[in-house]
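Bit of a strange request maybe. I'm writing a small parser for C-alpha cell strings and I need a real example to test against, not something I typed by hand. Could someone generate the C-alpha cells for this chain?
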Amino acid sequence: MLIRSWDRGDENEWRAWLAEGRDFGLLAANGGAGEGPVLVPTHFLLDAERGEILLHLAAPNPLLAAVRADPQVTLAVTDGYAFAPGHWRGAPGTPTSYYASVHFHCTAEVVESATGKAEILNRQLAHFQPETPEVRVVPGEGELARQLPGLRGLRLSVNEVRAKFKYDDKKPAEAQYAIADRLAERADGRGRGRDQYAAARAQLLRRHRRRTAGPGTAPEGATIPSDTTPRTDHPRGADRRTDHPRAAD
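Reply from user aminoacidic:
Good idea to test on real output. This should exercise your parser:
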C-alpha cells in the first residue's frame, strides 16, 4: 500500500479508528508457486497491548495450508471509502478514491490443541458476544467442545502496522469543506453508497480537525502507546514524495 506523507496515520489514530468497532478484515497469505494469494474475509480480535491478533477458521480452509507453508500474512481493514469525482477537487480535475485502511503484517501460528483453540474462542466470545458470559468453550464438555476438532485457531504476532487515511489532506480548508458538503449530499440519499459517503465525510473532517489542531494532537478516545505495541514505522522504499496525489493512490 502506497502511503504518502500527508495521508499517513499514526498509532494513536489507527488504534482509535479500530476501537470504534472495526473488527472485520481481509486476511491474506502467500499461495504456492504459480498461485495467487489466499484471501479470507474474517472477524478478528486485536490485542494491541500484546501485539497479537486472534481468530479461528474451519479446518479445511485453504488459508491454513498456505500459512503452514509460509507464516507471513497480512490482515487489512478498510472502511470509510468513497469515490471523489474530479470536478469536486478543482484543477486539474483528477478523480480519486477516499478511504481509510490499516494493514497488519504478521507472523501466523496455527493453533491445534483443544485448550489453545478454546482460549481463542472464549476471548472472541467475550468480545463479540459479551451479553452471554455463560456461553464458553470447555474442552471435553458440551456441544461447543464437540465442534473443536473441526476448527483451527490462528494467532498472529504483529510485526508492523501501516495505516493510511486518504482524504485530500494536502488541500486547503475551504476545499476540504466543499468536498465534505458534496459527500453530505450523497450521504443524504442523492447518490449511491450513502453509509460509506457519510463515513468518508466524517473521516475527512476528523483528519482536517486533527491536522489544524497542531502536531502531536491525539484524536479523541486515543490511548497512549505501550512499549509492547507493534511498530508502525515504514519499510524501506516507502514513498515520501509530495507531488500531486494520483487517482490510483
